[in-house]
Amino acid sequence: MDIQKPSIPRGTRDFGTIETVRRNYIFNTIKEIFQLFGYAPIETPAMENLSTLMGKYGEEGDKLLFKILNSGDFLSSVSASELENGDSNNISALISEKGLRYDLTVPFARYVVQHFNEITFPFKRYQIQPVWRADRPQKGRYREFYQCDADVIGSNSQINEAELVQIIDEVFKRLKINVTVKFNNRKILAGIAETIGRPGELIPLTIAMDKLEKAGLEKVVAELKANGFSDENISKLKPVLEFIGDTEAKLTFLQSMLQGSETGLKGLKEINSFLDYLKNIKITADVELDLTLARGLNYYTGAIFEVKAKDVSIGSICGGGRYDDLTGIFGLKNVSGVGISFGADRIYDVLEQLTLFPQEVSGGSKVLFVNFGNKEEKICMSYLPELRKNNISAEIYPDPAKLKKQMNYANAKSVAYVVLVGEDEINEGKITVKNMITGSQEKTTLEHLIAEILNP
Questions:
Q1: Is 353 within the bounds of a domain?
Q2: What is the pLDDT of residues 42-64, one digit of tens each?
Q3: In the chain, how many domains are there?
């Protein structure tokens, strides 16, 4: 019998102890900030009905949905002629009724409609759960990854946009990541489409513009031409794609360009309102208007955001925007919402590359008691509850092994303090503490060790 070599699907990962503790550090930091701003948690299932997911992310997004085969004989509902015809889309609809969630926003909209009578509006929720996309795996892009979302639904106020930028700023300030928050407005993009002579062509325009940073101007122009944009349309668009200047200069440029577009001017008014709120808030991060920021998801209708780390090239580590009628798809019209989503996996990669994880985020115990034998281990066992009572993680090596082996264990687990209790220490009522970070060693009391850890 052949032995199967264990493996996991491409685009997924196992997380060891240190990785898991570091990820929890990210989740807990984000969660604390969400809660400080009055957001409450919910959870939704890993899988949704495909009718909930399909058609919400655009054609490209639909292709990236992981579909789940129906239970039992899933081919029983497919006729021989349909199989012979080979129409994969038609067959897929017959054999698969559910899919893994692509993001947390559409399930949230479904949740709001389904639980409408139980919710107090405006509803501020956060959600930290995994999502799945059948994407091509590469650095910073995975098929299974966590999103950390905060949304407020049931309010049109630009206060919400300003508050979300505050949340972004606070999270990355705590994580010590220098970021730039880029923003734009989909109504401005719709106005640009009108101005260049392509009204109603917002989707192909934004899909192309969204690739400017990665693919360059030539690729964007080629894609626009492939979608029927004329040389004249593209000539009118180029000043937007090539404009250089600060936010004030860009606003002046847009004010002139969008004079003939009611939708565009409405978007410009929303941006000015958002910026007025920001004037009263001290933001550490750079906040700038990006005329080419498009965010490809079809459900965005107003403000859109994207956050980039300054010191690492990795793509966006947070993004979001306003959606005026996402719940309308499920029968609840005119309920506007706005939200952001932190990419925890990319944030992890940034923290790791910049060595920004705190020393204490190691996953090991803070204190390890060396085991010298039966008599000594009983004394050590009596000390452990005192440390744990003070919220200090501590353990004893379970076997009276050689000291070198126990010290290697402590090093492997990044233990900060090793405690030795031998005959002398028992007679004197003291402990010997080795600081594994500085290498210093002293004979002291358990109370002194606790005080040192709690008040470094």
A1: no
A2: 999 999 999 899 888 877 888 89
A3: 2
